[in-house]
Amino acid sequence: MAEKKVDVLIIGSGHSGGMVANILTGKGISCLMLNAGPIADFQKDRESKVAYELPYRGFKDPKKVPHVFQASEFNANTWVDEKEVPYSYDPGNPYNWVRVRLFGGRSLFWSRQSYRHSDYEFKAKDHDGFGENWPVSLAELDPYYSRVETIFRIRGRREGVPQYPDGNFIESDGNWSGFMERVIAHCRPLGIPVCKPRNAIGVDGLASSINLLLPDAFASGRLKAVPNAVVRELTVDKKTGLVSGAHFVDRHSRREMTIKARVVVVAAGTLESTRLLLNSGIANSSGILGRYLIDQTYGVGIVGTVKEAQNGKAPAGFMGGAATLPRFRNISSRAKDFIRGYAINISCGGNVDTHCIAAYGEELLEKTEQYRGSSFSTYVYGEVLPRYENHVTINKAVVDAWGIPTLHIQARYTDNELNMMRDAVDVSLAMADACGVEVLAKNTEPNPPGYSIHELGTCRMGDNPKASILNKWNQSHDIRNLFVVDGSSFVTGGWQNPSMTIMALSMRASEYLVEQMRQGNL
Ligand SMILES: Cc1cc2nc3c(=O)[nH]c(=O)nc-3n(C[C@H](O)[C@H](O)[C@H](O)COP(=O)(O)OP(=O)(O)OC[C@H]3O[C@@H](n4cnc5c(N)ncnc54)[C@H](O)[C@@H]3O)c2cc1C
What we know:
Elements: E1 5-11, H1 15-26, E2 31-34, E3 88-89, H2 119-122, H3 124-128, H4 138-152, E4 154-156, E5 170-171, H5 178-187, E6 199-200, H6 209-212, H7 214-219, E7 223-226, E8 229-236, E9 243-250, E10 256-266, H8 270-280, E11 296-306, E12 322-325, E13 342-348, H9 361-371, E14 375-383, E15 391-399, E16 405-410, H10 415-434, E17 437-443, E18 482-484, H11 499-518
Parallel strand pairs: 1-2, 1-10, 2-7, 3-16, 4-5, 10-18
Antiparallel strand pairs: 4-6, 8-9, 9-10, 11-14, 11-17, 12-13, 13-14, 15-16
Helix pairs in contact: 1-11, 4-11
The chain binds flavin-adenine dinucleotide.
């Protein structure tokens, strides 16, 4: 391909890249989007098979995606093949990196829990002195959150709880089941808010970049997208020090190509963006690119059965429903042995997962029947502290299928996260006890880092160029025509699922970018 110059090159097509394309094209700017994977054709690529026709009977090929607990033989082609794009970690400190390279990225498969961060996250250092504050506040992001919530159609309820900021919601049903009323009665005196969960409804069952963000961009005639284009590195103009474009390789033909661009926006998903910058050797005058990797603790919680609902005896309207108990620790008082906090998600009704019933054969069948419709469970998302030691580096010894050096990930939880999770289980057990739940299983140990699929940080924003990579507009401190708009820019992770914040930031960064182009600064 002959070298061409585009106005803005966008790398990645997920929530963050899709938002950039939507805003920029809407304001008259031409964009080229490169995406490492193919466009999924849901009609063509989907084939129904029964489990006995599959070599692993519906369980996954253990070698292909060992770190993706959602993977099975039924959906194996959605995830990044770990033999094709490997990564490494120190023995004893595993990291679960869950990636999707299809056009639309992980926005095709996310669970759609949609929360705002609060100033307990944006200004966390002001509360407990640890780490850094974000260079933005909730008030600054509020209008962008509202617009993202409109596009993604977030269902929720306005709760008036400062650590669970309200937004522009489609009102959810305000009723609670009898059991949930009992949970509320238990939690209220303890100062634990019990709130309605918030989810993206989207359109026609999809809340993705490909149906909510990219169609307008394509319709404008100003977006060209190239699938199967794996970006190898960004190029720099030696005279100006600005980025000049990118080298990329066609996934199938392995043909190497170059594209020139006036501005480059990296939206490859937290760790791929950082990998790309590290491989390009740019934007790192602070020396902290790759540092302060965060995610959220995941896998902790309890499973039980509501005694009154066993044997089908639940009165009408007693069981059912879900709730989010947003962070309540370290808000108005100090927890004993950890800073920051966690949220507990609870649900009741439905059947108990048979993995949690300690019985076999006839007894298992009897218990399954006994517990039908009586399930109660909690699962916890906890904040992980941003620590310098948790980081990624380039592992030159291991390259991917296109010869691109891969990532080595070093991350582990510390006492702060582990103490927090013990507290969350204690709170869950006390709730179960008070509400008439027989506990069948509990898990106090979080899964390895990465499991939440909320990897964040490593290219954080900040006002101080010596302690951050990006400024408050997701723009590189070092290279003014380079923007990074995904979760890598996060300073703290909070307990909240991050995609609303990723999109609010990428929308805001895009509008700033347009303004800078108009003023001739880019
Ligand atoms: C099963 C699951 C459930 C989830 N549930 C929730 C939830 O309930 N709520 C929530 O907020 N979040 C959830 N998440 C996380 C959420 O999906 C992500 O935070 C979000 O989608 C990230 O968007 P992104 O655009 O930054 O990155 P991605 O969606 O990862 O997109 C990055 C894109 O960049 C492309 N790319 C990568 N490297 C290159 C390269 N070198 N060259 C070219 N292109 C490249 C990829 O092909 C990909 O399409 C979930 C994720 C999963 C998988």
